[in-house]
Fold:
Amino acid sequence: MAYSKGDWKKEFQEAIQLHQQAIDGDKQAAKKAYEILKKVKLKTVNHALIDAYFGSSSALIARDHPDLIEKMNLAKRGLKALDQAVKTEPSNSEIRVLRGNVAFRLPETYFKRTKTAIEDFQFLIKEYEDKRNNISKEQYSELLLNLGIAYKTLGDNQNAENIWGKLFKMNNSKYKKLIEKARKNGGE
Structure:
């Protein structure tokens, strides 16, 4: 089947929508996004954003997969694609959001990727504070919360408290409750 150059862009937009549904818990959307992105990757060469969404979709399938070995393989494949995307476009905020969130949600015990999450969250926070990206105040607050949790996961309570202190100053009761919960749960 012959494709015009614009075809993959429509498919890519559909995959992004499905990816968001997968983040929200739709297991079938994760599989559909992954399959579309696999095809789109064949139509494009070295497209960092497509690679990043492909990697994140792979991790979302891993999240829901019943087989432990396949779960690990999918997560590793996803991380490899995300790392390559960041290597190709290190200043792309959207790619950093995807990789940071995947690295943050993987169990540190098995994957040792919390430092990657910290690196990406620090980059995104700095971009927001320097007004160089399209991150909303709500996303910024979530980044601060998660950065603190990531520090706590690695046992760096001082940096966790420093980051959460920034969030406390924003005076958002939702995040104050979430910080208290994170403190009690040891970052989990």
